[in-house]
Structures are given as C-alpha cells and as structure tokens.
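Friendly challenge for the regulars: who can give me the structure tokens for this chain first? No prize, just bragging rights.
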Amino acid sequence: MVKIKLNMASSADGFVADENGKVDFLNRYPMEETASKKFSDFMDSIDVIVMGSKSYLQLPELSPDEWLYKGKKIFVFSDGRFPVPDIAKGEEINFCKGEVDWFIDQIKSSSQKAVWLFGGANIVKQFHDEGFIDEYIITFVPDELGKGIELFKSSVDLSKLKKVSEESVGVFVEKIFVK
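First reply, four minutes later:
Bragging rights claimed.
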C-alpha cells in the first residue's frame, strides 16, 4: 500500500514561513552529512510529490541552483497554472484543481514507492482532515520567528498522534508521528 508522508521543516516555534511567506530561515544552517543522508534516503523512498501552489512557487527559493526533485512526479493543487521553473524543464508537473479526495486515487496510483506531502498549510489541512496522511515527519530548526504561517492549521493536533521517534540531527530536531 502506498503511504503518504508529510515531511516539512518548521521554526522552533511552529512556523513554516515568515509573515511575508518567505522560507529563507530554513537555509541559514548548512545541512550536515547526517541530515543530508537522511534527506537523500527520504528522496529515494518517494516517487511522487504533492504540494499547494504557494509551496510550488517557493521551490526556486529553496533550491535556486539545482532541481532537487528530478524524476519525481509532482502534483500541484491550485486554481491556476504556473510556469515551470527553467531548472525543472522536462519534469512531470501536474496541476490539479479541486478537493484532494477527488485526486487521491490518481496520486496513489502514480506511485510505486511513497508520496511526499510537501506542504503548505492548506493542502496539509485537507489531507489531514481526510485522514490521508500516514506519517508526519517534522524537522525543527533552532530559529524562532514569533509570527508567520503556522505549521498546522487548527485541525492538526500532534498530541493525538503517536510519536515514533525524536532525533537530533546537527542543529535540527526531527520528530516522526503516525496515525
């Protein structure tokens, strides 16, 4: 059975972006060898990525010099279509309009491995509310933003999930939860 894995980074105080929607705080810390290996292993475990339009538009900010998602099918939930970044030309990027439950079978049937629920907050809330997320992988950076876009909308309560691991990886703390 194909699993859907939410894998997101957050500030220590629970924000995925600042109040202007910027995520540059995530790039303040170089990824140490262990964190890099964990990310590489995670990327090897997935073949489909699902995200909202705001997250899609931030991809060039997250990795401006290299397309980190080579060979992965991408589904972008949006009311419109957006240009494909130059570094992603030739990649399979699908734009979906509508509720996630209309597309879940198509998304899962497109995967031979696992599906990465990339974010942002609105798409995560929809997947969570429908019960589609099997695993929640949250990596916290040491910065506190004080305000911005919250990691979860009010319907996601990590205390109602089972924490299966918590690990320090350099300056980061990774917590994994399951339903």
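Strands lie at 3-10, 15-17, 48-52, 73-77, 93-96, 114-119, 135-140, 149-150, 162-169, 172-178. The chain has four helices and ten strands. Your move, everyone else.
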